[in-house]
Amino acid sequence: MKDPSATRVPARALTQRQTIGAFWLFVLPFAGLTAVFGIWPIILSLQVSFTESASALQPSAQWVGWSNYASVLADPIFVSSLSRTLVYTLLAVVSTIVLALAYAMLLHSPWLGRGVTLFKIAIFLPVVTPDVAGYVVWRWLFDQSFGAVNTALGALSMPTFGGLASTDTVIWAVLIAELWHHVGFYVVIFLANLALCDRGVREAAQIDGADAWQTFWHVTLPELRPALLVNSVYALIQYLKTFTVVAVMTKGGPNDSTNFVSYYAYQLFEQGRYGEATAMASILFGIVIALALGLMMIQRGSVSR
Amino acid sequence: MARVELRGVGKSYDGRTCVIQNIDLQIEDGEFAVFVGPSGCGKSTLLRMIAGLESITEGSVSIDGNRVNDVLPRHRDIAMVFQDYALYPHKTLYENMAFGLRLRKTPESEIRRRVMDVAALLQIDTMLDRKPAALSGGQRQRVAIGRAIVRQPKVFLFDEPLSNLDAQLRGEMRSEIKKLHQRLGATIVYVTHDQVEAMTLADRICVLQGGHKLQHGTPAQIYGAPATRFVAGFIGSPPMNLVPCRLSDGRAFLGSLAIALPERLARAGGGRDRALFGIRPENILPTSEDSGAIPVPATVVMTEPLGADTLVTLRVADSDVVARWPPHFSGRRGETVCAHFSVSHMHLFDAESGAAL
Q1: Which chain A residue has its CA at the smallest distance from B84's CA?
Q2: What is the pLDDT of residues A49-93, one digit of tens each?
Q3: B184 and B327: one domain?
Q4: What tens digit of pLDDT does each residue of A23-44 get?
């Protein structure tokens, strides 16, 4: 029988050059896609924001410096839109995190027994539903004439819900539709973190004397900091850019009460005011980056303490 | 401190899978009780039932005379040390130890006094501002023990606390735990799969297998008078030699070799023609120093010098037995020797059930 060691070739470690080459070989395709479809549009958008709207899309666009930004910041509609966006974002982020956490805790508990699969499907199905289709259905549900929401409320002898027709209730209607669509995603993140939590630590807390709320507050919640950070930042970015739900359900109304920054910028695009529209988008971009980074620094600071 | 009583305690899952069966046990006030057995025998489940972390399907558990089946863990006045320490990762050592006292609204000054005293006792007082991730395994285990001690509970529960430590540290911590028990006089229920820990720490040992209690007694009783072949083989290192034999006329036949049994065993084995003959390694002597010992011809199979002793594997009739002989023994493989079986230390076990006769 042939001695296998006679044909054995000694393993050769990759040289540093080969290692770097392999790294770039794998990274370049995806880096290229990110650069072309991610970073390049941002750079172009920034460029357009410094040009005059009439010539913005032409090769010889006229440079106007900061005047588009000045115009946007002096626009009272933009200012009210921005404050509206920030208030809505705060409301939506808090609601999303609280609901997603509560639902994840429920799924993680033994209370649902074998029904847990049904509950998981129920919360995640809206996430994978096309958002436009979902929001169209919600528009119908909130319709004042034939919507199911008011029909059900009427059957229970409860006051009707103004839905999309009233400036007092439209924010809540939009929020309900958004929560329906998005919460499932955040539940998955929380569930993944909960799965990593040490059951023994919770049991130690029970033996130390903690009731369910104390165990959650003092033990579980601190262990969920990674998921809270990820979800908070992601929700912040998502809701600051709210667009689709407004475009489908309210068109910014009634009376501009849902005219968030993204939708207002879109309206300016439709009017051909490209310079101001991209300036508005850039301001929003800057706010998103600043708030997201700030949130990450606060959360990481509290973890290190 | 308190007494713990288990009456007919049983546990099953989904009404079918039975993991604990009908266990009766009494742990006296201040006793160091050890549950020992192989993995999967139910010892941790039994401990968790005492703690209230597992429900009790049958029977009752009482602490200090009070039935606690339906009492939540936080109301049982017990403290537990977990195998993987279960320290709060985001809290400092001080906060880990103070947490239970804070929940009970203990005054801050009292919390500080207790934590500092226990930390000094366990030699962790210089690291109270650190978090668990910055500590070694042994230090974390001390913190876990300290967290239990500051609570001054009625009963301490230890769930294989030394399993994750290396051999040297395990030995050191074993001594620490023994000293703590002597100092505190606490009622301790300790779970381990290590029979050395069980023998060295326990006032009484409960040997479990397959959810059943096989024997409950002092280390000397468990070692000297094992109730079943499993206990005989599990406790002691090396384990007891167990050899199938035929019984006839008050003698045990190991192959063609006849060994006269002491009267108590001859009587106990009456009516049976088969049994298991048992003798511990240290009761197979190299010389006839014990006047009651029976000489048995044997052939040396293997020697394992341990330093303080030498383990000698001997071929006796058709079976191999292990003897613990002095370190100067230098027999060669194949050499014929005369071993001496101590009559007063022979055991017989039923061939079918394994029960001691």
Answers
A1: A200
A2: 999 988 887 888 889 999 999 999 999 999 999 999 999 999 999
A3: no
A4: 999 999 999 999 899 899 999 9
Architecture of domain A71-304: Orthogonal Bundle (1.10)
- Residues of chain B contacting residue A209, judged by C-beta atoms under 8 Å apart: 74, 100, 103-104
Which residue in B116, B153, B163, B140 sits closest to A207, CA to CA?
B153
Determine the Cα–Cα distance for residues B193 and B176; give it in Å rounded to an integer. 19
CB contact under 8 A, B100 and A198: no
- CA-nearest residue to B98 within chain A is A208
Give helix B108-121 / helix B93-103 axis angle, nearest 10°: 130
Distance CA A96, CA A102 (A): 10
Total Cβ atoms within 10 A of residue B210: 15
Please give the residue range of the domain that contains residue B257: 241-350
Residue A19 burial (CB < 10 Å; 0-12/13-18/19+)? exposed
CB contact under 8 A, A222 and B90: yes
Burial of A13 (C-beta count, 10 Å sphere; 0-12/13-18/19+): exposed
Chain A residues in contact with B96 by the CB 8 A cut-off are none
Q: Kindly report the pTM of this predicted structure.
A: 0.81
Q: Domain map of chain A by residue range?
A: 71-304
Q: Which of A207, A210, A214 is opposite residue B80, by nearest beta carbon?
A: A207
Q: Work out how many domains chain B is built from and give that number.
A: 2
- Chain A residue with minimum CA distance to B54: A203
Is-contact B159 B85, C-beta < 8 A? no
Indicate the residue among B186, B218, B234 that finishes a domain. B234
B91 and B220 within one domain: yes
The count of C-alpha atoms lying within 13 angstroms of the C-alpha of B294, restricted to the half-sphere facing its C-beta, is 16
Inter-chain Cβ pairs, chain A and chain B, closer than 8 A: 61
Is there a contact between A278 and A215 (Cβ–Cβ < 8 Å)?
A: no
- Which residues 129-158 in chain B show a CB within 8 A of chain A? 147, 151
Asked whether residue B192 falls in the same domain as residue B333, the answer is no
